Known about the structure:
Strand order of the largest sheet: 3-2-1-7-8-9
CATH superfamily of the largest domain: TPP-binding domain
Largest sheet: 6 strands, parallel
Shape: elongated
Low-confidence stretches: 148-167
CATH class of the largest domain: Alpha Beta
Number of domains: 2
Bound molecules: nicotinamide-adenine-dinucleotide, zinc ion
Amino acid sequence: MLAELSPKLVVEVHHAAKLLAASSRICVLTGAGISAESGIPTFRDKQTGLWEQYRAEDLATCTAFARDPQLVWSWYQWRRQLVHNKMPNSAHYALAQWQQDTEVYKQHLTLITQNVDDLHEQAGSTATHLHGHLWRNRCSQCDVLYNSPLDTQSTGQSQRLNSIASDDDKLIKCTHCGGYMRPDIVWFGEVLPVQAWQTAESAAANCEVFISIGTSSLVYPAAGLAQLARQNGAKIIEINPNPTPNTVVDITLAEKAGIVMPLLLKQIDGLLQR
Ligand code: NAD
Ligand code: ZN
């Protein structure tokens, strides 16, 4: 694996591993890029098929839903179909393993995600979701969490396919107030869930190292967490094959998360087992 990486990256990974092995409080923020190698497109990828003519950023808004709820619901049903059979990749598994090992390592790792998929959980992690959950719905009017056939949190993944394959695109009305059901997702322009945001702010402000993985650092307030960490003295590591506007980065690991994370964890493990 090391042979495939550039000498510069090998040095940077080692540098990052030494920093992390010497730290006890770590905050990790993940974005759509960590799920890209699992086959889930990011918002920066061009949409395909029926949805080619739309930009994801123009559909994931309350204005779009108010204007055309059917269009937005159909798009989410399509995204659910796209995601339902996707599995965690080596980056999700490496993070989950690290979370499990923190007790032995005497570290504290808070995992914050902007993703609405559940691949961190499927890999065995506990994650704080800043932008909600693709597999949950709520009423767009009265906010009641809807226990619909598509709300598969309690019914398990095998149910997803069946429930989505039937009746897919039909809008569903809330039995309490008649409002339309919407995905329980934070759309562009909406406020983040208070508890999740408090967890994220506190973890960022109190960490020694902040790791940003697979995020374009364009979507606020999540993108401000790295700055908050930096203001409080943390070192910042970024894992992303492409450049981002994040200006507070100390170590850039410019490679796919699925390649970097297992390597990084192996090295941290090696350093802490000594
Ligand atoms: P984004 O789409 O804006 O950016 C993705 C970033 O990932 C890019 O900078 C890209 O260079 C990087 N990337 C691509 N492949 C990568 C890889 N293999 N390893 C590491 N990095 C890689 O995503 P964002 O910053 O998370 O913000 C957009 C919003 O989109 C969020 O609110 C999120 O909820 C939503 N979203 C979520 C999912 C998901 O749940 N999987 C998918 C698409 C969009
Ligand atoms: Zn309602």
